[in-house]
Amino acid sequence: MQSSRTGRTGSDVLVIGGGIIGLVTAWRAALRGLRTAVADPDPGGGAARVAAGMLAAVTELHHGEQTLLGLNLASAERYPAFVAELEAASGQDTGYRACGTLAVALDTDDRAELRELHALQQRSGLTSEWLTGRECRRLEPMLAPGVRGGLRVAGDHQIDPRRLAGALLTACERAGVVLHRSRAARLTVVRDRATGAVLSDGRALDADQVVLAAGSLSGVLDGVPDEVRPPVRPVKGQVLRLTVPRPYAPFLSRTVRAVVRGGQVYLVPRENGELVVGATSEELGWDTTVTAGGVYELLRDAHELVPGITELPLTETRAGLRPGSPDNAPLLGPTALPGLILATGHHRNGVLLTPVTGEVLADVLTTGALPDFARAFTPLRFGPTPRRPLPPVRLERTA
Q: Please, what is the end-to-end C-alpha distance for the chain in angstroms?
């Protein structure tokens, strides 16, 4: 809620964390007229540097996640208008492509699993089309001859998260958001209310409302009372980037996902010739080491799906940390501590949920309440969350 206090040197809103979730929150808050600041040593970095950018509300559906499906669909529907507004505000292209997704299977067991996913999609009222292996190869000729079947989902699109983060950063700057390029070391709590943060360089920032949007680090910020500490954990993901030489273009025309020996692999082609291959899912605490095993498994599965991939130059390997929550859904909105609001725990859907998260948080910051469609994602659903020890934080940049 916008402050009526005068003579303050702080902000109406301080966002801790400058990834895409923190930046979209800050941008939307500033557009609502709130004096907004962001604290992050590298705004526009974080998980966005690793994410593939699949906007896959349908093909990301998992059993038991029907409530999350509604939020994912709501955000996917907002994406075209959101991108148009953001690109106009920033003057930058986000790499948004309405290209659709093809999910395929390579053997009988994987085909059965994909059939189960198709049945779940149909029960959930979603649109997807079952294709034979031959029909899949007709759409994507580079696919392996052994493809046994697949699902065509016209509504699952993609965006380039790095461009998205860059556009959000520029939009924030143009909207008057103040960027403090330093890490928030401690939440400030005065008389049982969050009132700002102390940065790692010693500066103290004052704010009427604090949004904790620090991704997987949200659960380890000093000063957060244990009873409101978000139950988020780091989930490691390794991703590869290859380059498609111009003579081979187009290598793939849309995002291709596959079930290979029960495991998931995806290939996301960019218009600039980049091909993103991912991703592992590893519960290893704060480790961000790129491993030979992770690279091998991704290339092995991708090669079975698209044999020609091994001829492409490997240009980047990287590992990042997704912010996982107990139910794989985000924590959005006010906590039991007045003045502290959460926007974290998006797990594998952070890029997809960017538009709707910005909208929800802007409503919370100006009205104090979650909109009806987002109430299932209140942080209060978990109750008190005593702090559980994690391995020491060790964040290393890899390339």
A: 42
